[in-house]
Write a structure and sequence with these properties.
Helix content is 31%, strand content 22%. It is α/β, with parallel strands linked by helices. The protein has a single domain, classed as Maf protein (Alpha-Beta Complex), CATH 3.90.950. A six-stranded mixed β-sheet has the order 2-1-3-4-5-6. Strand 1, helix 1 and strand 2 form a beta-alpha-beta unit. The longest helix has 16 residues. 39% of the residues are buried. The structure holds inosinic acid.
Length: 192
Amino acid sequence: MNKTLVFASANKNKIEEVSHKLGGMPIKGLADIGCIEEIPETADTIEGNAIMKARYVWEKYQVNCFADDTGLEVEALGGRPGVLSARFAGEQKDSTANRHMVLDLMKDELNRCARFKTVICLIIDGKEMLIEGIADGHITREERGELGFGYDSIFCPMTQSRSFAQMSIEEKNILSHRGKALTTLKKILGQV
Ligand code: IMP
């Protein structure tokens, strides 16, 4: 296998989590291969978006790569925001507005069960693999913590009273959807 592996993301928080988890592996970023354009993610499922992003990089740059797509699925909201997580409160993709929208919709709701779902699409020498990581938990009643990104400050993983935004990257990676998917990715790469 060609040793270069590109993580197809421009999200600096995701890149930081991936670097912590895969430390020691030679991972490149999009800028390293000259990819500065925004990669389309217009599929109607989380899986579809992960595939779309990884295929874009494979087809255009011919490098082994992986892409992650993530959604927050809230039981009382029928699985929303799901694939629409980035633009739940509008096309401006404002994370603060997205969190407020969820808290607002959940104001009088007793069932606070939710989960994060990450799907990673890995492409090695043209062969595609999908890897899923799930973190079950609940939606808080107010924002908690300053760390992390996206919906982290309104989500407590199962058995925890702290939100992801109150955890270090190392702690979040042990419990999180992305951390779990990356554990599987590491195993797979050990076998390639
Ligand atoms: P995407 O996977 O980059 O498309 O992210 C979709 C939405 O989910 C964005 O609003 C992100 O900020 C949010 N998001 C993605 N991963 C996480 C996470 O690990 N914690 C909290 N929010 C996340």
